[in-house]
Amino acid sequence: MLKKITFFCLLFILITEPGRVLSQDRSSDNLPVVGGVMSGLRKADGWALQDNGVWIKAENKLPNSNADRNKTNDEENALGRHNFKVIEFREVMIRGQQFVVMLVESKSGRYKFKKIKQGWTTFHYVSYYVFKASKLKEILPDSAEVNKVSLINLDLLWSDVIEEFDRDDYLVRISGQIQKVVVQKLPSPRTLLMASEKIKSGGKMVVRFRPIEVFNQKSIYFKYFVPDNQKALLDKVYYEVPMETFVSFIKGMPVFEALDVQPKTYLEYFKRGIAQFDRGDYYGALADFDRAISADPLQKTFLIYAYIGSARFSLGEYQLAEAAYNIGYELKPEDPALVKDWYRMLYNRGLVRHRLKDNEGACADWQLAQIYGIDDAKKLIEKYCK
Question: CA–CA separation, 307 vs 85, rounded Å?
Answer without folding.
Answer: 41
